[in-house]
Specification:
CATH topology of the largest domain: D-Maltodextrin-Binding Protein, domain 2
Protein name: LysR family transcriptional regulator
Number of strands: 12
CATH class of the largest domain: Alpha Beta
Largest sheet: 5 strands, mixed
GO molecular function: DNA binding; DNA-binding transcription factor activity
CATH superfamily of the largest domain: Periplasmic binding protein-like II
Strand content: 15-25%
Order of helices and strands: HHHHEEHEHHEHEEEEHEHEHEEH
Pfam family, one: LysR_substrate
Organism: Pukyongiella litopenaei
Number of helices: 12
Domain HTH lysR-type: 16-73
Structural class: alpha/beta
CATH architecture of the largest domain: 3-Layer(aba) Sandwich
Length: 315
């Protein structure tokens, strides 16, 4: 006699239609069956019946009914997430077939954080293109808060950069490639440039370019500011744009934190300077994250191997 799990798999495999999953995702997006039905061009009674059939097939309640619409239960949230992943995989398959038809050797979408964007990822791309010169590559820049959900939903194959701390461990593999340390940097004309043995008090009069509030580095910096007599910078700009940050550091007396590999080239050519102050935080692992459950495409595997080789060269 089949187990509950096997029974559900057999039934769903025989009965499930993609239109049901499309409806499920749409209901989760709108929080309203009527709006979801309109989006899919089906009647509301038909949409309600499709959701009920899903609940019967999976033997769980997917939505809580409220006077304002519907809210996904934990079961509903899980199935919506898997539904999005299925549609992302279908899209990826269609894109890969189209790329092959046009003569390329597959496609990979890689998310990058600041710590990987200037050195690790370019080296990895050079490496992978030596082996797969026709590989189609798309790079998406952002923070973990933006990129990791897209990785979980299948829109992105890999995310390279500083690894998120204690999050998504059940769903993602987080592979450390090397440790990165953080530098305090400024423009070459900054009043503190060239001074030695700086203390934090020397920095207090200057504005700061800060990492986004959702990042680990920003949380560490905020805690450090609190320990410095609840320090508040006289001016603070939040930015993840390296080009903007570099330009502002060169034109204004601002201070910023940057991963050492990111700032190294601009320091070497005299565009930025490292200030002689070491902060008691900020060092952390740089690596690559990818989905734990689910086979990676050959193009994704090739990019992963190239990231490992590039990290070995850096280290």
């Amino acid at each position: 006699m089949p187990t509950g799990h096997a029974r559900i798999v057999d039934r769903v495999t025989a009965r499930l239609k993609l239109k049901q999953l499309r409806l499920l995702v749409a209901v989760g997006k709108h929080g309203n069956i009527q709006y979801a039905a309109r989006e899919l061009n089906v009647s509301q009674p038909s949409a309600t019946k499709m959701i009920q059939d899903l609940e019967l097939d999976f033997e769980v309640q997917l939505f809580e009914r409220t006077n304002r619409g519907v809210v996904p239960t934990p079961y509903g949230e899980a199935l919506i997430r898997h539904g999005k992943l299925i549609f992302a995989q279908i899209s990826n398959a269609a894109q890969e077939l189209d790329d092959l038809n046009e003569g390329s050797s597959g496609r990979v979408v890689i998310g990058t954080l600041l710590a990987a964007s200037s050195h690790l990822l370019p080296l990895a791309i050079e490496q992978v293109l030596q082996d797969r010169p026709r590989l189609a590559i798309k790079v998406v820049e952002g923070t973990n808060e933006v990129l990791i959900p897209e990785l979980r939903s299948g829109e992105i194959d890999l995310v390279a950069g500083r690894l998120p701390t204690h999050r998504y461990r059940d769903e993602l593999t987080q592979e450390k490639l090397f440790d990165e340390h953080i530098l305090v940097v400024a423009g070459t004309d900054h009043p503190l440039a060239g001074r030695t043995a700086l203390e934090f008090g020397d920095l207090k009069q200057f504005g700061w370019i800060l990492p986004p509030v959702e990042t680990t580095l920003r949380r560490q910096l905020n805690q450090y500011f609190l320990r410095q007599d609840q320090y508040h910078p006289p001016f603070a700009l939040e930015s993840v744009s390296y080009l903007t940050n570099r330009s502002l550091l060169r034109s204004r007396d601002y201070i910023a934190l940057m991963p050492s590999h990111v700032a190294a080239q601009d320091i070497d050519v005299g565009l930025l300077v490292r200030l002689d102050l070491t902060l008691p935080f900020g060092n952390g692992p740089v690596g690559v994250s990818y989905r734990r459950n689910g086979r990676m495409s050959p193009a994704g595997e090739a990019m992963l191997q190239s990231l490992r080789k590039a990290a070995a060269r850096i280290g």
